[in-house]
Amino acid sequence: MPVLSSIGRGAATAFRKPRLLLVLYLTNLAFALLIAWPFYALARADLGHSLLGRNLQTLDFVWLGELVYRYQSMAPAVAPWLLGSLLVYALLSVFLSGGTIGRLLDPEGRTTARSFFSDCGRYCGPFFRLFLAALPFYLLALGAVPAALSALLKPLDENARTAWTPFGLSLGRTILALLALSIVHMVFDYARIRIVTEDEPRALRALGAALVFLGRRFFRGWTLYLLIALGFLAATGLAAALAGWFPEEGLFFVGAAAAGMQLYILFRLWTRMVFYAAQADYYRSVHP
């Protein structure tokens, strides 16, 4: 089956690019540390020289809840920082996607910091224009689709005789909104791949070519996307189940939780690489 073959070759390509994964991880880690530093400095200034700070040896969720309650009055001041950080991260993701796809689609070239960031800069302009073009579609998928489904299913919700009916309708709306979001994401992924493979600087032309490409192969392309997404969700669920076996207190739990989170971030970045590599392989199988 071409879809499964493309997923297998995409995973193999991602495995052959450990340096690319390392560059992505270190870049994301540096950004996360930059964002978290003000909050760390605040907690250290408040607790670093206190008796509580010296005696705190376990991960106490009650204490963490009290700390959040204590600083909740700072939410209005912190909100702009967090929103700005999300915007900067979105722009950083657009920038890094150029280097990611560029290195994945160059099987013979080595991944170095120079080659990676060179591809980031090379494709930054077209990818940013695609990002702007994608925003209305993301808003439709996350806002208009759930609103339309809510209005359509409102009679069933109002006439429900058990609590399971509203729960099922809510779950159905969420799943359909996520499916709509996956379609938008898939279409723009193929537009990015088109820009790199065809050296096409015009974002809208690449988007039109991606729509034409998927017109006859929509369900095969969507199946490829959903299979990778389901594999990621299954692995996430397995990791969450394994994490439940660890004791929820003590330094061992803190260390295991920190290490597990870093492994999960690596796995998430690797899955993103598989998405790009598998879709690029499928695209090239049709347009060699």
Record keyword descriptors for this entry.
single chain, 288 residues, mainly alpha, 85% helix, globular
Can you describe this structure?
By secondary structure, this protein is mainly α. The chain has helices at residues 2-15, 18-47, 51-55, 61-70, 75-104, 113-158, 164-197, 203-215, 218-243, 251-286. It has 10 helices and no strands. Helix 1 packs across helix 10 (251-286), helix 2 (18-47) packs antiparallel against helix 5 and helix 7 crosses helix 10 (251-286). The chain has one domain (2-134, 216-286).
Large-scale geometry? globular
The number of helical elements comes to 10
Which quaternary structure do these chains form? single chain
Low-confidence stretches: 50-59
Give the percentage of residues in beta strands: under 5%
Structural class: mainly alpha
Largest sheet: none
Helix content: over 70%
Order of helices and strands: HHHHHHHHHH
Mean pLDDT: 82
